[in-house]
Amino acid sequence: LDSYLRPQRVRGLLDAAFSVNGRTFGVLCLEQRDVPREWTRADEIDLRRAAAAISLALTRAFFDSGFGDAP
Questions:
Q1: What confidence tens digit (pLDDT) does each residue in 7-59 have?
Q2: How many whole angstroms separate alpha carbon 52 and alpha carbon 19?
Q3: How far is CA 52 from CA 1, 12, 34, in A?
């Protein structure tokens, strides 16, 4: 992780995992570069909403494609 964070000058991270069919499928990451950042509660809520929207879209895409049990 350090081999990425330092060269990119990342000073703040906020992550939210998203799932498909109850299994973790990915992580949505926000990064702040150059200056430190203290994430707000609103930032956290917005990120969780975005992760939930991604989860729902992927679940629907798998269902619509006939792969309802994927991944």
A1: 999 999 999 999 988 899 999 999 999 999 999 999 999 999 999 999 999 98
A2: 8
A3: 25, 22, 29
